[in-house]
Specification:
By secondary structure, the chain is an alpha+beta fold. Strands 1-2-3-4 form a four-stranded antiparallel beta sheet, with helices on both faces. A three-stranded antiparallel beta sheet has the order 5-6-7, covered by helices on one side. The relative contact order is 0.13.
């Protein structure tokens, strides 16, 4: 009986913590402007110089030159900064409402970017990657 009460108490406590985090806004994804995305990128890669940017739903693509792009997107409350070179990309697909980048990396095999105009973003990305 005591073990059953213990499990019930633990379940209520975990639910309470999850509710509290949600009410405080700690459960939503990060949102940032182009300037904030550039700042996050330069903090992670101070020796790089972004040339141009494209905005997608929830993040920013930065063109870096030399057939590379940087993707700054939310990972929970924090921004994830990743540089992609042409050698790391196996395919770029324009889907209705999104763009899918298939990578050769097992840790992040596909990156899905929300966009209203996937064909234009795909053309820009393929031009930047070469």
């Amino acid at each position: 009986m005591a073990l059953l009460l213990y499990f019930a108490f633990v379940a209520v406590a975990i639910g309470g913590v999850a509710l509290l985090l949600n009410r405080l806004g700690k459960g939503r994804e990060a949102e940032f402007s182009i300037e904030e995305a550039r700042a996050h990128f330069l903090k992670a890669h101070p020796d790089e110089t972004p040339e141009e940017e494209r905005v997608f739903k929830g993040g920013v693509l930065l063109g870096l030159g030399a057939h590379r792009v940087a993707i700054i997107r939310p990972m929970g409350m924090f921004p994830l900064v990743r540089i992609l070179a042409r050698s790391e990309v196996s395919a770029v697909e324009a889907l209705p409402g999104s763009l899918r980048i298939r990578t050769k990396d097992f840790a992040d095999p596909q990156i899905k970017l929300g966009t209203d105009n996937a064909a234009v973003l795909r053309a820009w990305l393929e031009e930047r990657l070469g």
